[in-house]
Amino acid sequence: MTGPAVTGPAAPATTGADRSGSHGRDPWERYGWGIRAVWLVFLVFPVIAIVGSGLPWWQVALGLLLVVAFGAVYVFGSEHLDRRRRRHCEPDARRGVAFTVALVVSALATVPFIGVGALSFLPFVVSFGMFALPLRWAVGIGVASVVAAVAVALFVDGGEGTWVVVIIVFAVGVMTAGIRVVSDRSGQYEAMSRELVLVAERERVARDVHDVLGHSLTVVTVKAELAERLVDLDPARAKAELAEIQALSRQALAEIRATVGGLRVARLGDEIASAAGALAGAGIEAHLPDGEHAVDVVDPRHRTVLAWVLREAVTNVVRHSDADECWVELEGNRLVVRDGRGLEGRPEGNGIRGIRERVEAAGGRLSLTTGDAGHGTVLEVVL
Predict the structure, then answer these.
(1) Does the predicted TM-score (pTM) go above 0.70?
(2) Could you give the dihedral angle defined by the CA atoms of residues 129, 132, 133 and 138, in that order, rounded to the nearest 10 degrees?
(3) Residue 233: inside a domain
(4) Which DSSP letter does residue 333 get?
(5) In this structure, are residues 122 and 113 in contact, taking their beta carbons and an 8 Å threshold?
(6) How many independent structural domains does the chain possess?
(7) Which domain covers residue 190, as residue numbers?
(8) Least C-beta-crowded within 10 Å: which of 23, 62, 323, 361?
(9) How many CA atoms lie within 13 A of 243 on its CB side?
(10) Residue 106's closest CA among 146, 136, 76, 133?
(11) Domain match, 278 and 362 both
(12) 77 with 33: CB under 8 angstroms?
């Protein structure tokens, strides 16, 4: 009768992840009741005791009915725990108490028929309660069951069979308590892991939205100011700038949608071309890598990260530098952006923090320093 105590209720109460995956319920779950019912074969011991008790037939029938009721409560209670597990829910304490009380009452009701043989129900009660009740209550049930079994062995029936039951109840309590603690800790770890994934995704979206909107809105602002100055001097040029603003706005909207969907990927070649337009619109002379194959010198593994860095660096140059010139240098695993105004002790903003996180996540290093002779700012990334 050692089987049901350790394995029976543990299976339906395990708090592991749902194995059904994203394609629906596992078709094998419908047979879970059969697996749990297998352990009820150990109820053959009280059945044999009742049948061989020599009691009148109606008392034998009543005793067998109580055993069947115990088995039914055990199976239905285990199925309830299994449903809660599949839904990633904690056990319902009130229903757990109700099932446990029903098991205890059914077991006690057999005492008039089989006496100390009713102790054979205790492993089922202990193992079920260990997963159906709050941990403190479950441990209390386990301790009370062991104490009750020891008391019966000491004061009622000190036979070898009774002491065997005591050992089994104690072993079941210890093993199921260990399983319960490990299951609870595993559930907490999984919940924390899911929370960390959500936090990382929020940070990714926030970083990408900042980089996309910061750059796009900066360019739009610069071009809108330029169009305002040209509207009287050169209406055709102003109209062209307004058309570019419209195109940039649509592009920014598409990039935001792609960012939210996790599909946004920066391309280094595109960012170099975008940097040329943004710097020109702001009246800053750009010194950028030349030629269609300018990005070929960069390791393909690093191009996406360097593209995000270049986008944010150029945005900062346009918005904050008041520079006349900007230099961009590309090497195999290195990007350097220089402009004409120093840091002047300004703290890092969200944009710099965002690209620093990107670079560090890729195993690289970002440095932000004042240029030679205290003029200009130098942003260098090495991957």
Answers:
(1) no
(2) 30
(3) no
(4) T
(5) no
(6) 2
(7) 3-195
(8) 23
(9) 6
(10) 76
(11) yes
(12) no
